[in-house]
Task: inverse folding
């Protein structure tokens, strides 16, 4: 029943999202006070709401979309089912989160995307990247935001590779109010069937 950490480390090696004319806020840790001076140590953090492994609220991509606090905690903890690029859209079958396992990137058709959206998940968790064939690069992000879906992304991809189709997942963002997202800790453990029972890897 080992939990696998799918969260990118927040350190000086962290890649920061950038385009030709835009860059997310840099990540940095600064000393604030020391044990020698104050009797305890505190550091100051500089980061953006979409730094590292994070969750996007609909407000990140859709004007008037819900901000982070609109998502209940129950939508962030529980069974997951996996959507693999190139395979059929899975059945929901009691899952709480839709996990897209595409560490090497992948694509699905618009019809597959629509079927996956129709499953009604409040949260999608993507390891790697997923494109919708024939659509612009940010179509998936914008379509999920318009549908009110929260998106967890920028996971550590290698630990996600061996996860099976079903298991349990925890996606725990900072409890920020009124924001377009937050850094997020993501843990998962896979489920395997053995002698007619369900056990966790």
Result:
């Amino acid at each position: 029943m080992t939990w696998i950490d799918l969260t990118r480390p927040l350190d000086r090696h962290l890649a920061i999202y950038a385009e030709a004319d835009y860059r997310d806020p840099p990540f940095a840790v600064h000393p604030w006070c020391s044990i020698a001076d104050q009797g305890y140590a505190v550091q100051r953090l500089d980061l953006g709401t979409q730094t590292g492994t994070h969750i996007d609220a609909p407000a990140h991509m859709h004007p008037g979309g819900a901000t982070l606090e609109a998502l209940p905690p129950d939508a962030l903890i529980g069974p997951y089912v996996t959507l693999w690029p190139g395979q059929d859209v899975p059945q929901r079958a009691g899952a709480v989160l839709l996990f897209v396992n595409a560490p090497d990137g992948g694509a699905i058709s618009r019809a597959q995307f629509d079927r996956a959206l129709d499953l009604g998940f409040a949260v999608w968790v993507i390891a790697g990247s997923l494109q919708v064939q024939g659509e612009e690069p940010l179509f998936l992000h914008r379509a999920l935001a318009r549908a009110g879906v929260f998106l967890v992304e920028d996971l550590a991809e290698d630990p996600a590779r061996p996860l099976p189709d079903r298991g349990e997942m925890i996606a725990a963002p900072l409890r920020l109010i009124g924001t377009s997202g937050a850094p997020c800790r993501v843990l998962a453990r896979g489920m395997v069937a053995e002698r007619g029972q369900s056990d966790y890897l």
Remarks:
- The longest helix spans residues 110-118.
- The chain has one domain: 4-14+48-200.
- The chain has a mean pLDDT of 94.
